[in-house]
């Protein structure tokens, strides 16, 4: 159970420089500093202020807390090394509760005081905010991977899309000979952009390879999936895809094992958090679950991942690192740093200047924290189609071990995600 701390359910300024600055200063668009850098909302001579809208109290609470920790860690390190453009970077966090209406209110509270939003968690929230961001020329860093944002120049997608993940996950099951032509595959998915985008990918590859998808649409409030698993068992599925939250993944795995449906399960990245391994579903997850995500598992054996894990353990002793939490928050902040620096080099830290700099980023290397180099020059294309496939292992930090290196599945190259 996640213990909710009151401080996390309200706006907080993460002022991470040694100076301890906590001001939320404003600047008029077009102002210039002594170096000739134009500035706008959220930028002063000493600070760059960003926002973060995450879910600290609902379905993705544990992952959101981890996102914030990864974000805090990166900017603490970066600010200690001089910040960006000679400025300290501050991030103000607000809780949306995975509620689009609450997110809109939080956006309106923040929008006049920030240069952009580093993290916006959840497809329903992103859908609600995109029209406002377009009006405000606001940069939105998406903590989500729905293809619906493709083509929107305001939205940063850190990795590939849910449908490409689903294609890759189903291709993995085919290559491993866990399913074959003529088989049925269950797909439990959230209603809305997240789940339905993933279903589009699985249905496409199923049509290519002679499989049948048995879909089970659920709501984010559905936590006991006994009925859905019973339907899949009766249908005789040979594997299950899950495009939902951690609670739903645990329910699918636990119920399936209890009724004798011992089949492989593949979840999109947001469907797993290592805290699940301490629940009654832990053994079933360890036995049957793989996770497909653009983010590296925390225990990945590369220099960047090892450095991050060591720094995370030092900064948050006892905290649990997560793939689409702490690794995501840290890697996204790293890419935002590159974007802000490019805007600074272009002498334009206005919102338009930041968006221009964002779409000049190409072949961005995160040291493997995100699978594959990232190219943001074409808003209509995912910045990569490469992912990590991981199996559950409760003996390592983050509970996941990569299966081989980063993977770009052949059918994922041919598949065309649609915004």
How many beta-strand runs? 16
Known CATH architecture of the largest domain: 3-Layer(aba) Sandwich
Q: What is the general shape?
A: globular
Helix share bin: 25-40%
What's the CATH first level of the largest domain? Answer: Alpha Beta
- The helix/strand order is EEEEHEHEHEEHEHEHEHEHEHHEHEEH
Count structural domains: 2
CA-CA gap between termini: 36 Å
In the predicted model, the low-confidence regions spanning at least 5 consecutive residues are 1-29
CATH superfamily of the largest domain: Response regulator
Gyration radius over CA? 21 Å
Structural class: alpha/beta
User: Mean pLDDT across all residues, rounded?
Assistant: 92
Using the coordinates shown, work out and report the CATH topology of the largest domain.
Rossmann fold
Content of β-strand:
15-25%
General description of the model:
The structure is a single chain. 37% of the residues lie in helices and 18% in strands. The chain contains 12 helices and 16 strands. It has 2 domains: 6-160 and 300-358, Rossmann fold, CATH 3.40.50.2300; 162-293 and 388-414, Rossmann fold (3-Layer(aba) Sandwich). The chain is of the alpha/beta class and 419 residues long. Strand 15 and strand 16 form a beta hairpin. Residues 47-393 form the Leucine-binding protein domain.
Q: Which helices and strands occur, and which strands form pairs?
A:
Elements: E1 12-15, E2 31-32, E3 38-39, E4 47-54, H1 61-80, E5 88-95, H2 100-110, E6 116-121, H3 123-136, E7 139-143, E8 155-157, H4 162-175, E9 184-190, H5 193-209, E10 212-218, H6 226-235, E11 239-243, H7 246-258, E12 265-268, H8 282-288, E13 289-293, H9 303-315, H10 323-345, E14 348-349, H11 351-358, E15 388-392, E16 400-402, H12 410-414
Parallel strand pairs: 3-14, 4-5, 4-6, 6-7, 7-8, 9-10, 9-11, 11-12, 12-13
Antiparallel strand pairs: 1-5, 2-3, 13-15, 15-16
